Amino acid sequence: MPDPVQVSLAISEAAKDASPLPVPTPTKAARKPRPAKAAVPSPAGPAQSEPAPTESAAPKAKPAPRKPKAPAAAPATPEVAQEEARPEPAAEPVPPEVPADAPTPPLSSEATLDPRDADTFAIRLERYRADLEGSLRSVYGAEQLVALWPRLEALLRRALAERPADLRRLDEARLLRPDWLQVPEMIGYVAYADRFAGTLEGVGEHLNYLEELGVKYLHLMPLLKPRVGENDGGYAVQDYRAVREDLGSMADLKALASRLRRRGISLELDLVMNHVAQEHGWAVRARAGEQKYRDYFLMFENRDLPDLYERTLPEIFPDFAPGNFTWNDEAQRWVWTTFNSYQWDLNWANPEVFLEFVDIILYLANQGVEIFRLDAIAFIWKRMWTDSQNQPEVHDLTRALRACARIVAPAVAFKAEAIVAPGDLIAYLGRRDHHGKVSDMAYHNSLMVQLWSSLASGNTRLFEQALSAFAPKPTNTTWGMYVRCHDDIGWAISDHDAGMAGTTGPGHRAFLSDFYSGEWPGSFARGQVFQANPRTGDRRISGTAASLAGLEAAQTEEDIDLALRRLRLLHAVTLGYGGVPLIYMGDELALLNDERYLDVPEHAQDNRWLHRPAMDWHKAEERFDVATSSGRMYAALQRLIRARRQLPHLHASIEAQIVPSPNEHTLLFRRDHPLGSMLAMYNFSPEFQPLPAPLLRAIVGDYPRDALSGHEWNLTNPEVALEPYGAYWLIEQTR
């Protein structure tokens, strides 16, 4: 059952109308005075027969006020706060009752399955029943599970009945090749559809380009219909069943997915799990006073509970959206808004929200979406006296959603967008009874951070320390490996790891922010600080990979050569670690920072748009000209991809193991495969670095082959030297 202090739907008589809350807006405004406490009726169990409103049917909402700050509280440790202000459990909202006779949602068509499909459904349901029932019972309790089950089963039957024939064939193929996401041939490409090609139809006109690069799955950044105006780069979704009008229609998305599938390219979309735009139909009806939809959110009549939560909640956007709660005049409630005031956090303690998302996932899967990036998944469950991230219910809910997807659309995979500490990350791929049953992929944020850390310091001791702390992942899962993405870089480096590597956490994080903003003497980087937090000292970094690696600052041919060597090194690590390399649009051409974002009012206050340039198709046309920086970068990346595709050692089921290096400037990984071992060697220094040959020989033998150059190495000599920013994949050869 949900935690007694869990912010949920309904409220007991003692804590009337403490419903779910929305996200803070990034606007600045004077704090709204606390409203006088008014009595509100305790919510009844939500009605089930009324379908959720679409945005087109929803009345126009008023503009959101800027997110007011929570009232200042006297500093207190959580322990002191618990002693002084912890409310009685009765003052916390509890999940609403679901009537046992609640009708199933209306079906868009008869969910009649032919005998063969009925058998398929029964077999899959039996296969995943334990995961589904166990997770839902853990989150919602046995009584609510009994009430929920008939409606859930009807929803799953309907979705299977509506699944197109070509996607059913894909389901069967994936069941025969369950490791499809783990193979070395899997290369991802990440792009904003509009910045890549203008529209979804335009994306379809550039599939030859993607295929030539070796792309096997395409992640199109948020393209579901967002709110008008500021929308957090598309992550404030107004309608999950519609596409941004300037990009096309849902029919266009379905057509693009089909074209991609014919070329063997899987389509990935973002599914924002934690929140919706305040203009979403659910939020519109919640503001209008409909209790069913108020129960979809976390809304509070006064500041009593929000102030208690704030004591342990971090701020995501302290510059333009401080605090985690926003006052809404129309609803006369404080709404939980973790990110921006126009993004209202959903109340996953309400099983109706779970059902809505099952329906959304299966609807999009039937349009041809094959991979769902579960955005902000770490935040979906709230608990008092915690940071309301990484709670156990998150993993139960993910396992239940995955089971539903496996029953209807086994071709579908989940990718967790969980930018969390290493100790919390493995849980998103599965621990204990969740092992391999939650997300199929998770971002390896720590490796990305350590890449940039070692590039700045020239030292790999912290890299070794941080990665050695990772527990093995489930063998049926994979990492999402990346050099850069659409977001800022946060220096997720623990004080413990920094101390073990001979430095301090605060000092090293400050150094990295100074270095990559170009403020450190001798820095080659040209990034910008994003969201400086004077209270915590946190300063994240924006900038493209090429600008951060020194190409923008390069003055001479030698500078250009060093910058391109750095970029090749970073990509070699991500392609040679195992997992799915995710190439961020334009990195294959070494695109630089784009200051033109300042001319766009919706973007000007968010310097992350610095590293979201429009695709430069003129440079793309020059990609085979190795006299240009873009041509050299493209050629280097293509060689890495070709080499990777030939190496079964890079199947994601095989763990990369740190080999402690005697040289603090170099990084060594080994991967042991039945065909022989692989040793990846990387030099993070601008100078030649020596390594003792006997150490290497013990792993890959006397005469390994370098898969990147094709050369055979002689390790019978006492020592070898790695070139400046050199990368090598040595493969054991059997003679």
Could you explain the architecture of this structure?
The protein is an alpha/beta fold and 735 residues long. It has a domain at 657-731: Immunoglobulin-like (Sandwich). It is built from 23 helices and 24 strands. The strands form seven sheets. The chain has an eight-stranded parallel β-barrel. The chain has a five-stranded antiparallel beta sheet with strand order 18-19-20-24-22, with helices on both faces. Strands 7-9-8 form a three-stranded antiparallel beta sheet, covered by helices on one side. It is globular, with a radius of gyration of 26 Å. The model is unreliable at 1-66 and 68-110 (pLDDT under 50).
Q: How many extended strands?
A: 24
CATH fold-level assignment of the domain at 657-731: Immunoglobulin-like
| Strand order in space, largest sheet | 1-2-5-11-12-13-14-17
- Percent range for helical residues? 25-40%
Q: CATH H level of the domain at 657-731: which superfamily? A: Golgi alpha-mannosidase II
Shape designation: globular
Per CATH, which architecture of the domain at 657-731? Answer: Sandwich
The SS-based structural class is: alpha/beta
Gist?
It comes from Deinococcus irradiatisoli. This protein has 735 residues and is of the alpha/beta class.
